[in-house]
Specification:
Chain B is of the alpha/beta class. Chain B is built from 11 helices and 14 strands. By secondary structure, chain C is mainly α. Classes of the chains: A mainly alpha, B alpha/beta, C mainly alpha.
């Protein structure tokens, strides 16, 4: 039963990674940049939701919606102010700017909300843990919902990207920016939309993550951000189902190595697995093969 | 070439702009001199980054003490307190220390966290700065440095006391422990605890570590505890991860009795924390904001008025540090024009010569061993109905 | 297509052949910065113009400059993005600390001990670089970046469970994942995540400066050698490089391993400057910090990276007067400087302002105005 409990914890953690990884992967797909500030958007989402549910007494779900709106706006703003001026100047300049934005968000949060950690009110306050198999197996509602939310988000997003006009435009831009522009697609709008969706999802990830692991601090988003980035690469960066599979596998590996190998070395094991996967499949599990143009 | 020059011109100029702004912003320090002069006390701690809450608590606590002292004796020695940020990084901490020395610091209250404090202690030893740290509890902080003293218990002392208490009061418990192995404080306590518990004929049935404070998922560790039937969980960690552990244990339907050290103090004041989760937990801490003595109550209300939150043990430690330094300085009979080195030697002599202090973090007197360790009576609190009750 | 490649190669080759004096110029500026920097700082310190605060940063500045130079070899000259440079620094730093402690009873002369420690640090870091460098051969671009990031995190994670100590006979003992029994505190060298404590400081400004000069010497010479030209040719066009018979794997690995060894030496010097050193110092943020130096100084521009490293090391310290707003200011300056240096329209704007001073459009207010002014003054 311990195995099953660990598996569910792993899937739940992995789902959080997967939702964050979606933001990385979509942004990477469309603008070929590593947005290291993404983890901190999660933290902002957590704080916004916390403020509205604790101080304004709102329902957790309404505050989640507000956090999504806030993060969406924040994502668009970041793209507009910090990344757009650097578009087309090589990925390194934007990468460093993203780091700058990450520092900025962390320190702004520190100034606004202070260094004292907050304990996040769970979305499922009052819903009790389900016990099965004579108390040996316990399923927390947060874990189950996180896994479910991940699947739903994945389905909606895949449909959006493949069926709707805006989604197709996004794919076109990520395929060939210049050609898309010639075809009359508004590239700026598509990129803004990608950032909006990614950041909105970051808010969801933030609230779900804080519901399961309730401590909220200005640095809360940093490590999950890096792990989710790893997950995105694991699955093949740029691929939406890849982000989901990468996230889930990463979460399960992390929990299992903690449970069965070593708690101290779990991060090393996770990153070691990543290296091995990339050695076997250089573009990640579901990544597209890069054709070299001559 | 031209482009690169331009680039640098831009960098240089934007830096200059900021410097100019900085120059305008600085220089706001109070310079009104009183009869007895000013004692410059420096502080170092993490004001930004993941450990910021400890540094900020120390800053706030120290500022309250400074304000009280300066208002109580307007004709006496006035304290000027300057707290510098070290981001919980030894490198930055040494930088902060050098800044303070440049700015004319005479006594150091710090550093807040252990690893940076170890680095600064070596510098302070070479430069002869007297240092009293409110909260850096590792043994390496004072090792080989005659000028550094600790106001808090050393880590092994805490582990020892905790083990003795458990062996006496819970001889039949199955003891487990989760500790932070990347933290001097946590692993220092745990090592001593394990050893002391062994000497009492008990053992740690399950021990698990985690590697940093932002490590949010404890389900694997808790599952192991649960499977080992641990009913008394020793948590020599800070309250932030502890609150996480309690919440996750609750979610998986696991409710051991918790036993923590001074790092656990503050858990009840954590915004949004369901205090029912910590019900029945025991903690070994020198300070509790719920204590009913007059001094604590006055401090807590002053703190709440100034900063809008309850003080944690770090703030109380800093408060005591400022008073201790101030009183000891007055006992030395030196004037405020004495140099950092003179003050250092005089205060070392006082501390080694049986100087005693009182404060919020000790029920009786505090004394110091020549090694720098503090000697004071420990206190154990029980969390009952959302309050700390002294045992 | 083939025509373009040929043209590419030939212009590149031509540049390399003809512009020998360009290299001379680069070397002149780089060494010049080092020598002038050393003299100015030494003089300033001895006269008393430079306070303790800046003096305390002399060694870290040298170390960061050396790191920026060595990372430039990978990012600028070899054209691969590395996010794990701090990992090599960690290997070097801890190797150095162990070697220094082991040699302490046997070798009294500090500088010689330090040189031996530096050599060992370089060897260990080079080995680490080789191990991680091999996968590089099959990876491209951002996938490579993530592997180096993963490597940095793995190194840090392993350091967290490594224990080293000297026993009574001064023999080195090693343990994994737990403390070593029967060892007193002062016999410990590394204690897991707590790292090293009680390190006797061996780093001096002169020593660190010599190390930086050595790093510069190695990188400039490599860049100006046949191998260096091969590395740059591969960076500019891998397929073209392959087609003219260059061994891509060999050259990429060469750049990577040399860079790792130099980073290890810098790390060793860094570790000898503080009485305590914990693995957490070598996290992702430090890797990124070094990368920031390189990018800000102009990718591939060695002396640019040197200046950027020195400036950005001092900058957060200079911001101490901002108190609580220090790191926020740093973040904003970083973003603005990046936009200021890389934004094409902004660059063009500066040029147009230089050409003919005319009122700017209403749309761009505030910071852009200020910036343009600064650009103007320089021009």
């Amino acid at each position: 039963m311990g195995f099953l409990t660990n598996l569910i914890s792993g899937l739940s953690l992995g789902s959080v990674y997967a939702i964050i990884a979606l933001g990385y992967t979509m942004v990477y797909g469309i603008s070929k940049m590593l947005n290291f500030a993404h983890g901190d958007v999660i933290m902002i989402g957590g704080y916004v939701s916390f403020i509205f549910s604790m101080y304004m007494g709102m329902n957790g779900w309404i505050s989640l919606a507000i956090a999504m709106v806030a993060c969406t706006v924040l994502g668009i703003l970041i793209e507009r102010l910090a990344y757009r001026p650097l578009r087309g100047t090589g990925s390194l300049a934007v990468l460093i700017t993203a780091i700058g934005v990450s520092y900025f968000l962390q320190n702004a949060a520190l100034l606004i909300w202070g260094a004292n950690p907050r304990v996040f009110p769970s979305l499922f306050e009052g819903v009790s843990t389900i016990h099965a198999a004579g108390g040996k197996l316990s399923l927390s509602p947060v874990s189950l919902f996180t896994i479910l939310a991940n699947i739903i988000i994945m389905i909606i997003l895949t449909l959006f990207v493949s069926k709707t006009k805006a989604g197709k435009a996004m794919r076109a831009v990520s395929e060939d920016n210049g050609a898309a522009q010639l075809m009359g697609i508004n590239v700026n709008q598509s990129i803004s939309l990608t950032f909006a969706i990614g950041s909105g999802l970051a808010a969801v990830a933030g609230v779900l993550m804080c519901s399961a692991y309730p401590v909220l601090m200005p640095t809360t988003g940093a490590m999950p951000g890096i792990k989710a980035f790893t997950a995105a690469v694991f699955g093949g960066i740029g691929s939406i189902p890849g982000a989901m599979i990468g996230g889930l596998i990463l979460g399960v590996i992390e929990i299992f190595s903690r449970a069965y190998i070593s708690t101290e070395l779990s991060d090393a094991i996770v990153f070691g697995c990543l290296i091995i996967v990339l050695l076997v499949k250089p573009t990640g599990l579901l990544g597209k093969k890069i054709n070299e143009k001559v | 070439m031209k482009n690169t020059f331009k680039k640098f011109a831009i960098i240089a100029l934007s830096c200059m702009m900021v410097f100019a702004l900085a120059a305008c912003g600085g220089g706001g320090g109070s310079s009104e001199s009183s009869g007895a002069g000013e004692l410059h006390i420096g502080g170092i701690g993490p004001l930004t980054g993941p450990a910021a809450l400890y540094g900020q608590a120390v800053k706030n606590g120290a500022e309250i003490a400074v304000k009280e002292i300066n208002e109580a004796n307007p004709d006496g020695v006035q304290i000027v307190f300057d707290m510098q940020d070290d981001e919980h990084d030894p490198e930055k901490s040494v930088n902060a220390y050098n800044t303070l020395v440049d700015d004319g610091m005479q006594v150091l209250v710090g550093t807040v966290t252990s690893a940076p404090c170890t680095a600064v202690s070596a510098e302070a030893y070479a430069n002869r700065t007297f240092a009293l740290t409110p909260s850096a509890s590792a043994t390496s902080v004072v090792e080989g440095n005659d000028n550094v003293f600790q106001l808090c218990f050393q880590d092994p002392q805490q582990g020892q006391i905790a083990a003795e208490y458990i062996a006496k009061n819970f001889p039949d418990a199955v003891v487990g422990a989760i500790y932070n192995n990347s933290d001097n404080y946590s692993s220092g306590i745990f090592d001593a605890f394990k050893k002391a518990l062994g000497e009492k004929g008990m053992s740690v049935a399950a021990e698990e570590a985690f590697a940093s404070d932002d490590n949010a998922d404890f389900s694997a560790q808790l599952n192991k505890m649960k499977n080992a039937n641990v009913d008394l969980l020793f948590l020599p960690i800070y309250y932030t991860p502890a609150s996480n552990i309690m919440k996750q244990a609750h979610d998986m339907g696991y409710a051991p009795k918790y036993f923590g050290c001074d790092g656990l103090d503050g858990i009840l004041a954590l915004e949004g924390f369901d205090t029912a989760l910590a019900e029945g937990a025991l903690l070994l801490t020198p300070f509790s904001a719920d204590a009913e003595d007059e001094a604590t109550q006055a401090f807590v209300s002053a703190y709440q008025e100034a900063y809008g939150e309850k003080p944690i043990q770090f703030a109380a430690d800093a408060y005591d540090c400022i008073y201790t330094v101030y009183n000891c300085f007055n006992e030395t009979g030196l004037g405020t024009d004495a140099s950092m080195e003179e003050i250092c030697e005089a205060m070392i002599e006082k501390f080694n010569g049986g100087f005693t202090a009182t404060g919020l973090t000790a029920s009786g007197d505090m004394k110091w061993a020549p090694t720098g360790e503090v000697e004071k009576a420990p206190k154990i609190y029980l969390i009952q109905d959302g309050k700390y009750v002294e045992q | 297509m083939a025509e373009r490649i040929l043209k590419n190669i030939s212009t590149r080759g031509l540049k390399n052949a003809v512009k020998g004096n360009e290299y001379r110029k680069e070397a002149l500026i780089s060494y010049g910065i080092l020598i002038i920097g050393y003299i100015v700082l030494q003089l300033g310190a001895s006269v008393g113009l430079i306070g303790k605060h800046l003096q305390g940063q002399f060694v870290p500045i040298c170390v960061y400059v050396a790191l920026a130079i060595s990372l430039n070899l990978v990012v600028g000259i070899s054209g691969e993005l590395s996010l794990g440079h701090a990992g090599f620094m960690a290997v070097g730093a801890f190797t150095g600390i162990i070697v220094m402690r082991v040699l302490e009873p046997h070798l009294g002369i500090m500088p010689i001990r330090l040189i031996i420690a530096l050599i060992f640090a370089a060897i260990m870091a080079a080995i680490a670089g080789f191990i991680i460098g091999v996968p590089i051969l099959s990876l491209r671009g951002d996938y490579l970046a993530i592997v180096t990031l993963a490597f940095g995190e793995i190194v840090r994670n392993f350091m967290n469970v490594l224990y080293f100590a000297l026993d009574e006979n001064d023999h080195l003992k090693f343990a994994f994942n737990h403390t070593i029994d029967g060892i007193t505190n002062d016999q410990r060298i590394l204690t897991g995540a707590i790292g090293a404590t009680g390190v006797t400081k061996a780093a001096t400004f002169t020593g660190a400066m010599l190390l930086t000069a050595f790093t510069l010497f190695v990188v400039l010479n490599l860049k100006n050698s046949k191998q260096g030209r091969a590395i740059m040719a591969i960076r500019d066009n891998r397929i073209a490089g392959e087609s003219i018979g260059l061994d891509v794997r060999k050259y990429k690995l060469m750049a990577f391993v040399v860079s790792a060894a130099l980073a290890g030496m810098a790390g060793c010097m860094f570790g000898q400057n503080y009485s305590t050193l914990a693995p957490v110092k070598f996290n992702f943020n430090t890797s990124i910090l070094i990368l920031v130096f390189v990018v800000l100084g102009g990718i591939g521009n060695i002396w640019g990276g040197m200046i950027a490293a020195a400036l950005l090391t001092i900058l957060p310290e200079a911001f101490r007067q901002f108190a609580d707003y220090r790191m926020l200011t740093y973040a904003i300056v970083l973003i603005l400087v990046m936009i200021g240096t890389y934004n094409p329209t902004f660059k063009a704007r500066i040029n147009s302002v230089i050409d003919k001073i005319k009122p700017k459009k209403k749309k761009d207010s505030g910071k852009k105005n200020k910036k343009s002014k600064s650009g103007k003054e320089v021009a």
